[in-house]
Amino acid sequence: MKQSAISLACILLVTVPAQAALKVGANAPDFMVQAALDGREFKFNLKSALKKGPVVVYFFPAAFTTGCTVEAHDFAQAMPQYRSFGTSVIGVSHDDIATLKKFSLSACQSKFPVGSDHDRKVMKSYDAALGFLTSYADRVSYVISPDGKIAFTYSDLDPDQHVLRTLAALKTLAPNRSATTP
Predict the structure, then answer these.
(1) pLDDT one-digit tens code per residue, 133-181
(2) Rounded CA gap, 139 and 159, in Å?
(3) SS3 labels along 76-123
(4) Other CB atoms closer than 10 Å to residue 75's CB: what's the count?
(5) What does the pLDDT look like over 52-101, one tens digit per residue?
(6) CA 72 remoteness from chain centre
(7) Helix (H) or strand (E) holding 142
(8) What does pTM read for this prediction?
């Protein structure tokens, strides 16, 4: 049922251009979520993560669906490049923490955390709901600069460009640093 609802939403939204509501320069809403990395649960806090450098927050509809698994794999493979920019990454969905613990091991390959926004408060604060299926997140990626401002947004249900575009945005934030090849 969950897979078919997401598939239907994707088909219906193909003709509607997706747009992230938070604009470049806006303050990124702070949040704390239960997260999983390497199958272990912890609390992720955006404000704390920003003290270490930029943060990519990407929203995804549901763990273990085809597009979300591809996207998580792409982020996992690119983690050496993100680290070269001093950047951390967190994926956020409505999934419960038990599901995300498993997803962090498989699709994320234990390379970055995924956070549970089970009550959808973070999704709402980032205006990242999936059209009329507000229980699910849209596929939206944000690059947040260490000062807590939105530096880049990208929204597209196709997972293929999220990693490339967020890395390109990070390169403009830190033009003297170049990402290493994984």
Answers:
(1) 888 999 999 999 999 999 999 999 899 999 999 999 999 987 655 554 4
(2) 7
(3) HHCHHHHHHCCCEEEEEECCCHHHHHHHHHCCCCCCCCEEECCCCHHH
(4) 27
(5) 999 999 999 999 999 999 999 999 999 999 999 999 999 999 999 999 99
(6) 9
(7) strand 140-144
(8) 0.85
Look at residue 8 and tell me whether its pLDDT is greater than 60. Answer: no
CB atoms within 10 A of CB 168: 14
131: Cβ contacts below 8 Å, ≥ 6 apart = 9, 12, 13, 16, 138
DSSP of 6-40, one letter per residue?
Answer: HHHHHHHHTTSPP--SSPTTSBPPP-EEEEEETTE
Domain 2-173 falls in which CATH fold?
Glutaredoxin (3.40.30)
CA distance 6 to 15: 15
Residue 10 predicted with pLDDT over 70: no
Q: Put residue 166 in one of left, alpha, beta given phi > 0 → left and psi -120 to 50 → alpha.
A: alpha
Q: How far apart are the first and last CA of the chain?
A: 37
Please state the domain extents for the chain: 2-173
Read off the tokens for 75: 């982020």
Classify 125 as helix, strand or coil: helix
